[in-house]
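Bit of a strange request maybe. I'm writing a small parser for C-alpha cell strings and I need a real example to test against, not something I typed by hand. Could someone generate the C-alpha cells for this chain?
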Amino acid sequence: MKRKASAVWQGDFKNGKGTISTETGALSGAPYSFTARFEGARGTNPEELIGAAHAGCFSMALAAQLGESGLTPERIETASTVTLEKTPDGFTITGVQLDVTARVPGASREAFDAAAKKAKEGCPVSKLLRAPIGFNATLEG
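Reply from user aminoacidic:
Good idea to test on real output. This should exercise your parser:
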C-alpha cells in the first residue's frame, strides 16, 4: 500500500507561498507559507500535518491494542504537539508529545497503560519518525 501527497512551493523562503494536496482529496491545494509555519498566520504547515498524522495513527493503534485485550474503546482523543526549534544545524523537529484521553469500559489502568505503550511503539508514524529517509532529487532545466 502506498499513499501519496504533494506540495508545490513558489517563491523565496520568507515571501513564497505553497499548497499541499493529498491523493484522497482530503487536502486539495491547502495553503502553507512562512507566516503560517512560523508566525501563526492562517494556513497549515508540515509540523501540524505530522502532528495530525501521528495523533490519528496512534489513536487507531491504541484501539487495535485494546481490541487484542478484548476491550472496545468508546472514545480515544489524542493531541499531538510537534516541537520545531532553531538549532545550530537549522530548524529541527526536536520532539513530539502525544497526550491521550480514552474512555474504555472495563479497562484497568494497567491494561490501558500496556496497550498505550504498545500503540506508541507500534504506530507506523512513530516508527517513521525513527526511520531512514529515501531521497531522489531532479533538477529541471
